[in-house]
Amino acid sequence: THELRVQAVSQVTDRQPLPVKVPQRLEALWATDVFTLSKMQASLPKDVYKSVKSTIQTGGKLDVSIAGTVAAAMKDWAIAKGALYYAHVFYPMTNATAEKHDGFISVQSDGSVLTEFTGKVLVQGEPDGSSFPNGGLRSTFEARGYTAWDVTSPAYVMETDNGVTLCIPTVFISWTGEALDKKTPLLRSNAAMNKAATRMLEILGHSNVAPVNSSCGAEQEYFLVDAHFAHSRPDLLLAGRTLFGKPAAKGQQFDDHYFGAIPDRVQVFMQDVEERMYRLGIPAKTRHNEVAPGQFELAPFFEAANVASDHQQLTMTLLKCTAKKHGFVCLLHEKPFAGINGSGKHVNWSVGNATQGNLLDPGDTPHANMQFLLFCGAVIRGVHKYGPLLRAVVATASNDHRLGANEAPPAIISVYLGTQLEQVFNQISKGETTSSAHAGVMELGVDTLPVFPKDPGDRNRTSPFAFTGNRFEFRAVGSGQSVSGPLVAMNTILTDSLTWIADELESEMAKGHDLTTAIHTVLKEVMDKHGAVVFGGNGYSEEWHKMAVEERGLANLRTTADALPVLKADYIEELFERVGVLSAVELESRFEVYAEQYILAIEVEAKLMVSMAKTTIYPAAMRYHSELSTTIANAQAIGIGLSKESAEKVAMLIGTMMDKISKLDGAMGKHDFASIEEHMQYCAKTIRPMMDELRKDADALEGEVADDFWPLPTYQEMLFVK
Ligand code: ADP
Ligand code: MG
């Protein structure tokens, strides 16, 4: 088996990058595979086009009677692009993207065929999605799930080796309207936020406010490993991470990979991904090497949250399938390799509209500052009040390896504002007047606040939730996760806070105070009650972890088992019901699905560890031990005493490893749990530590056993041979 490793190294060394394609002009590529508004304009009757456009741009109600006309135009366009099939694409609660393909074919009574795509099938589909986890929802209501056309996210054609398919983004719901997916709550949360934000803008004196939308730009980190290596690592293939592996002598300590020259093979791969993204209308914008060897990042230009979320799912799909073409495996796991950085997804988020622009942009006029401070204050209140929710929406078995480990954001949710903004909010909370360098004594009425630079010079990389100039950046999101959950949570807590602030402002003004005074009073109250969540120091430090919990009363939910039950807490159910984003039943079904996924992920890993340790590592160690012992005995026979130290160490490690295997195996036999919460805790507190223990011995053996006996590609090979 060591042969396979040697072969892999030589094959990887000889591998040539795919030839560099001459890049096409961006204008020639852009959105060629998307059924864009301009394509609709060219192919639809004027009134139909106008109706669709109004639904897309201003959230007007979809006029279903036009569906047939749109479907026909869409079909013609897709067929001209080579499509024979169409698919309703939806996003089940598993973080995956799902699609069911149907042919355009329609058989006539005389046996001939036509291509057909009616309005009815564009608008609604009925995939047999009964195998998707639904947290008991469909057994409670009905067995079937429906997909329904989301007009606000454009249809596109997807080209794979198997042909071209017209893809239609859809929501996935039960027949009674319960959300079974990740898109429905995102659309609902955006609508709720629009309402609350519009009300706030009207209180501030704006009229004819354009619809407010949330925006998202998600930075995606990922690892590339050569397929020759990945294919001989069952753990990478089945669990997406290495369950065993001794860290290489060199890791990331020299920072020599970070922002370094991108290796040729990777560069060609990236260009290929970007070309496909451009064709699909996804605005890829930055690419670079990340901190860990073999780790990279890709970020698009931001878009409306709903579209960005669909595009993010597509991006993950493109990364994985393009990697295959280039002889790589793309790992989106949050911690594929121990001892070096893991991968996250930084979700940049803001809210804004066509009339007021970005509402989290401090701007440079006092009036805009006032508006900004209200929206920013609303976020601060939300993160403080619902911090555990933000932790819960990023809770997965794989992200547990990252959150709270020393390089990723801690599991404690705090807000970083930057020195200047933090100072402003501190002053608000103290009701202080302050002197500015230029204008002498300045009253700290909100309308006289200083102008902030758009991009504060200081950047705090240790904060899970950071203000970055004109948006918030939620950094605790996992690299393989859908961004929808985090976006739903952020929109929802903002809606709740804006509504609360608006109520307070109105009641202050009813008492006869003017708007500026009312704003000052309310913002002070926000800071008095919620300022504890603002933290500008080192989020990784021990002192912070102590202070956050003991002095500031912030939650430190270390594991998914601790975090997920938050979704069932009364105050969270009330929040989602009040805002109209998820009913208690829907929320509970989400909890069930996520909890089950967590347990399954750990069970698969534990099983795989036992089998790899038994059938791969143990035999290699035994063979090596036997060779050592024979050599020592042979030497002894001719009167030479060789050191037995290594042989003894190997024997000892084999012994303890086998004990740990049977312990873990035994522990996995337990099935009588009083609740799913208890089962999760068992995984977190019993199974996971046993896995870590087992790994220790196996990795120690890797350090003892002769290299030509070791069956698994090593960290050194996987991370450094390119
Ligand atoms: P950094 O690594 O410094 O955080 P990047 O340029 O890699 O910066 O990523 C920043 C991301 O934030 C990009 O996707 C960008 O489009 C996005 N972004 C910028 N402005 C907004 C906004 N108003 N709303 C949402 N995302 C935004
Ligand atoms: Mg960032």
From TrEMBL:
InterPro entries, per database record: Gln-synt_C, Gln_synt_N, Gln_synth/guanido_kin_cat_dom, Gln_synth_cat_dom, Gln_synth_gly_rich_site, GS_Type-3, GSIII_N
GO BP: any one term: glutamine biosynthetic process
GS catalytic domain segment(s): 193-617
Residue span, GS beta-grasp domain: 84-177
Domain of life, source organism: Bacteria
Classification via SUPFAM superfamilies: Glutamine synthetase/guanido kinase
GO molecular function: glutamine synthetase activity
Family: Belongs to the glutamine synthetase family.
Role noted for this protein: Involved in nitrogen metabolism via ammonium assimilation. Catalyzes the ATP-dependent biosynthesis of glutamine from glutamate and ammonia.
Official protein name in the record: Glutamine synthetase
Native source organism of the sequence: Chamaesiphon minutus (strain ATCC 27169 / PCC 6605)
